[in-house]
Amino acid sequence: MSAVTKFIKLTTKFLEDYNKDIAIKIRDALQLSEEQHTKLVETLKVDELVDMRKMSRRGNGPVKTRTPTAYNLFVQQKIKEIKAANVDLDRKQLMVQAAAAWTAAKAEKAAALALEAADGTTPAAPVAPVAPVAPVAPVPTPVAVPTTPLTPTPTPAPKKTKAPKA
């Protein structure tokens, strides 16, 4: 458990205890009915200050889940295949074999693209058609406007210097 998580849990516990004491003191001082006291306790109830599962490590809001990359998807599938063939492998060995398979598949794909480009049958990378660009009107250049202060600024008095003694 991280120090931040411990701090949040301790703070939440402290606030719950403190709010119970406050609610009792307010009930006694104002002679509240049970219904009013229950409403006060509900108002002072401290929920979990921060749901740690929904917070990013930097603490700046909910974590945004990214879509898996091609590598992530490939490795996930490859691990399933390798695990089905070799049940006794540990997670580290599964990752090593899946990463090696990714490298081999990547090299195979690059070789196939290079072969296609050398044959001239298909381009190595398809070129998307470029849409015509509409002419853009020139932006007028801003004119410099002299700024004068609204109130005159006093000019400093000249410094008096002593005449040199002869």
Write structural notes for this entry:
The structure is a single chain. With 166 residues, this protein is an all-alpha fold. Among the domains are: 3-54, no CATH class; 70-119. The protein has helices at residues 3-30, 34-44, 70-85, 91-119. Helix 1 (3-30) runs antiparallel to helix 2. The longest helix has 29 residues, at 91-119. The model has no long low-confidence stretch (mean pLDDT 76).
List keywords for this structure.
single chain; 166 residues; mainly alpha; 4 helices; flat
Layout of helices and strands:
Elements lengths: L2 H28 L3 H11 L25 H16 L5 H29 L47
Helix pairs in contact: 1-2, 3-4
N-C termini distance: 83 Å
Largest sheet: none
Number of helices: 4
**Content of β-strand:** under 5%
Low-confidence stretches: none
Give a summary of the structure in a few sentences.
The protein is mainly alpha-helical and 166 residues long. The protein has helices at residues 3-30, 34-44, 70-85, 91-119.
